[in-house]
Structures are given as C-alpha cells and as structure tokens.
Amino acid sequence: MTTLTTIVGDILTASNTATVTNKTINRANNTLTVRLANDVSGTLPIANGGTGQTSCFSEGQLLIGNTTGNTLTKATLTGGNDICVTNGNGTITIDYAPPIVYNNSAWTWGAGGNGSRGDNTNTGCVSSPVSVVGGFTDWSQISIGANNGSTTAFGLGLRTNGTAWAWGYGGHGRLGDGTTTNRSSPVSVVGGFTDWCQVSASRNDAHSLGLRSNGTIWSWGCNGSGRLGDGTTTNRSSPVSVVGGFTDWSQLFAGSSFSLAIRTNGTLWSWGAYGFGRLGDNTYVSNRSSPVSVVGGFTDWCQISAFLHSVAVRTNGTLWGWGYNADRQVGDGTDTFRSSPVSVIGGFTDWCHAAAGSRHSLGLRTNGTLYAWGKNNFGQLGDNTTVSKSSPVSVIGGFTDWCQLSANYQSLGVRTNGTLWSWGRADTGQLGDNTTVSKSSPVSVIGGFTDWCQVSATYGGSAGIRSTAT
Asked: Is 265 found in the same domain as 210?
C-alpha cells in the first residue's frame, strides 16, 4: 500500500486513511493529484457504531460515507465540480495505486532530406518508423509539411509543457527558430511561449501556424499571398500574431498557400491565396493577408482540413467542401471549382472527422467507418482499385473503429485498438510497411505497436505519436 501525500483540503494526509468530517473538496482542473486504480476499495465505519460496508469503486471515484444508513456512496471526481461531504463521519481506508505515466514518443518515416524526419540524419528514405531524437517523452501533437517536394519537408511538434518544436528544411523561416537553417533534430520555436496548444505545418507549402491557450493564432514562414495573416506579405522566421484582434480561436489548419481557422463561436475564417476558390469567401478575386469569413452563415463548424481544397465538418454531422476540384476531391459529384462550401454527397449526417489529401479526401463517420473520394492513381482511396471517385466510397477492410486520419498522396488511419494503417503512394517508404510499393487497400504500419494515437502525412513522409503506459 502506497503512502498518500497531502491533497486538496487536507482530506488525505501522509497516511492511507483519512477522517472525513464535514469537509469540502474543491475540485478544480488539475488540482487533485491522486489517481485511484480500478481495484480500489474502502471501508467506512458508520458513525452510530454500525458494522460498515466494503465496496469497490472505479478509477476516478472517491468513497464517501453516509451516516444515515449502512451504505457507501460513490462520488465521481470531474473537472470543475465541487464535491461536498456534509454529513459523513468516519474513516476511509484506500488502497492507492500510483498515477499511470505515459511515454509519448514521436516517430517519422519516409523521405529524410534536409533533416525532415528529425532523427538527426539528412538523407535517404526509411520505410519503417524511426524515433524523433531529443529524448522527449511528452509529445502531445505532431504535424509535418512540405513545399512541393520531399526535400523541403519539415515537422512541428508540441510537448505537454506547452513548448513548440520544429525540424527539417528551414527555408523561408518555416521552423520559427529565427533562422532559415535546416535542422535534423528538434529546435525550439522562438518567442518563449509555454502555452501552445495546437500547431499545423502546411501540407504543400512553407508556412506554419500555432494556436496558444489564450486563443490567439501565430504564424511564421513563407508569407506569399498573405498566408500568415499578419496583414503583410513579408516572410517571418519567428512567430507573428494573426491580425483581427480575435482571442477566441479554437482550431487551425495550414493549407496550400492559405490558412483556415475556427473561432469558439463556430464561425470559419480563411486567409492567403484565393486561387481555385480555396478561401471559401465566394470570390476568385484577390489574395487576403488577414482573415475573411468563409461564406454560408454557418456558426457550427467543428473540424477542418485543407490542401488546395478544404473539407470541414459541422456539428450537425454534415460534411462540406470547396476549392480545387479537378479530381472531384470536393465530393459533390462534379469537377467544378467551388468558391464557397458545398455539401459532400451521400446523405450522411454523422460525419465526425475529415482529411484533405493532395487530390483526394477522407471522411470518418461516427459509426467508425471510413470513406474516401477523389483521385486514386496510387490507390489512396483504399477501395482496392486505382479508379478515381467523385463521391464517397468505403475504405475496404471491414473495420468500424477508425478514429483519426491524415492524408497527402498517401492516407493514414488510426483505429481505436491503437494500430496504424496506411495506403496510397509509397515511393519514399511513407506507408511505413517496410516497402516502397504503393497499396490500394490498408496495410499495417510495421512494428507491432498498438498505442498509436495521432498521425500526420505530407509529401513523401509520415509521422505519428505513440502513447505508452509505463
């Protein structure tokens, strides 16, 4: 039995027992440091001298006594709630299990020119995952990008301490470290911020975006067409704030020469290059160096992804697309470019996640099934053909537990069992199956790992985070 340390309100002190007498546990986020294991049990003597009762309770619950009867009450500890013990007297004995610690490691595979894998090398391709160097075990997100080729690939990563890191090709300042120097291992994005909560590396360009927990968006790298959103077209090698005065941004995505972002009020905004209607502002007129609203009047956007086209999910479960559509990647059954959102056909109203690839798209429904549409020359649709599709078709395999996606010329998907699968283009080993042969249906990324939790795909390369309990 492990000795407990003092917690909120001195309810538990340096002992495995605690006397509870009209105490209040103020349960704010991240203040309670005890994690209770599934096999925890406790015994509470009743105040009137009753025999008491032993009960097992689940992870995240605290055993509270009730003096009015020979019972035990379970109170679930959830963020933001107060748990009041107003009539409980007695002693709780807790068999305590230490917190589960997770090792969150970052992995990359595929092309490695100019340090793009972050594995402290500069050349060659690898067809199976290699670890990003640095010794960090607290990665929380990874996003990789490239500028029209595998030799210009770069990566961004967030750690749980709120710091942002970058590696790979440094041209135009896309690494955000104040230089244009290539880096083969992670370097810190400058600025001294420790509250980054999301990053996005352009899948086909040379700019980067970052969201801080105060709701502001920052950008760096190439600023052609105004894609940084700072009101200029000047390249930046360190983060600058996106103009507009908004402090309620909640999600972002760096597309090809433009950017997308959602605010907490559910509105969707874009800036950068206007070509092909990719900004979604119903024009083909001019570039935008500051955010403009995506048309449609919707205030319930919840998830976005972009390349030369965009796909976005609304909270009502509908899926929409716009922008470049020569290969029918917008999913409206046509090859007409769209300058404002159009509904992806199929009649489904349970979409929950989508990913825009180079010339194709992926969509995930709440039932765990995965669909694809658009160009299919490398088998990137995963339907066991190389025939392009203008509307969603099911990715084969029979799996109904897909949970996270990413796409470029290849497609990546994580299942709820923690396994990672890939299909599509493989010439630089970006499928991670130890070959350079393209696949038209999902194949397992090698290594036997069952703890993948997030993935990212770019031109010639792939990346992912594993979360391993230690």
From this structure: yes
